[in-house]
Design brief:
Blueprint (H helix, E strand, L loop, with lengths): L27 H5 L15 H8 L15 E2 L6 H22 L1 E2 L8 E3 L10 E3 L6 E2 L20 H4 L6 H18 L11 H4 L6 H12 L2 H11 L8 H11 L12 H13 L3 H4 L2
Antiparallel strand pairs: 1-3, 2-5, 3-4
Length: 282
């Protein structure tokens, strides 16, 4: 009786069941022959990367060319052009709000832009950076923090944590002009550091709200402060910034109710200011 093999089952044999399967003994020559690998395990002398390259689709090379456009309004070539740009920024802000229901929520010197390139017919002034923008008629929280904006330019009410409205942003336009007149010494953005106002960048919000309220509440004190702190280049704007203060802070305090009329009042002051001969003097 032929004994059953325990060394394995040769290729091509059919197995019916473990108990009945038999295997043919290999010859010594077949034991030394290399085993045939299944197709997916066969060795390949070529790199798999070369195979992949041969089936890649044709590639199309594209380039995106960008051009810087505009500059911050504090780099304006003149006082009148800076005021015109600020007026245009307010108009652009109102357009964004009326057409889309979005309020920008971060009016600051870094986000108000202008264009003085004679060969570029695009917008003469515009807003950028809508990272903190929110829908005006929102029922649910927007996801943004309650107090949003660049601290030095935030409205007094926003610093106290009031629900953000377009009235807060219009007040921020005032603080941008106030800041420019204190920190910039001439056209094209030459600046200086004023320690008294540098603290506005890191004061606790409640304390900063009190500092700002104290700055605008009394007209005489406000005039004394801006005469002392406005740079010589911006001294001609002292009476106009005070007029703007009267509009933005009636009776020395922020508006209590929303009023779209504030847009027109602010733009009217700025338009008159840029026509002042003292402002136009170089």
């Amino acid at each position: 009786m032929t004994p059953q093999s325990t060394s394995g089952v040769s290729a091509g044999s059919e197995r019916t069941s473990r108990s009945r399967s038999t295997a043919r003994k290999r010859s010594s020559s077949s034991l030394n022959a290399p085993l045939s690998l299944p197709p997916n395990k066969r060795s390949c002398s070529t790199s798999p990367h070369e195979d992949r390259r041969s089936v890649l689709p044709n590639r199309i090379h594209r380039r995106v060319i960008l051009r810087d456009y505009g500059k911050n309004i504090y780099k304006a070539s003149s006082r009148a052009s800076m005021l015109a740009a600020l007026e245009g920024n307010i108009e652009g802000y109102e357009s964004l709000r009326s057409l889309t229901g979005i309020i920008q929520s971060d009016v600051s010197i870094g986000n108000l832009m202008m264009n003085e390139q004679e060969d570029n017919p695009s917008w003469p002034s515009f807003l950028i950076d809508l990272d903190l923008a929110i829908k005006e008629n929102r029922e649910n929280p927007s996801g943004a923090p309650n107090k949003t904006g660049t601290r030095a330019f935030m409205a007094i009410g926003a610093l106290y944590g009031e629900k953000h409205t377009f009235m807060h942003d219009l007040e921020s336009f005032f603080w941008v002009l106030f800041w420019i007149c204190i920190h910039y010494t001439g056209p094209n953005g030459e600046s200086r550091v004023v320690p008294e106002f540098e603290t506005w960048n890191y004061e606790p919000t409640s304390r900063l709200a009190k500092l700002k309220s104290g700055t605008v509440v009394n007209e005489k004190h406000f005039l004394d402060a801006i005469k002392d702190h406005f740079t010589p280049y911006y001294q001609s704007l002292v009476p106009w910034v005070n007029r703007l203060r009267r509009v933005v802070f009636p009776m020395g305090k922020p508006w209590e109710d929303e009023d779209r009329e504030l847009y027109f009042q602010m733009k009217a002051v700025l338009e008159k200011a840029r026509g002042d001969p003292e402002v136009l003097t170089k």
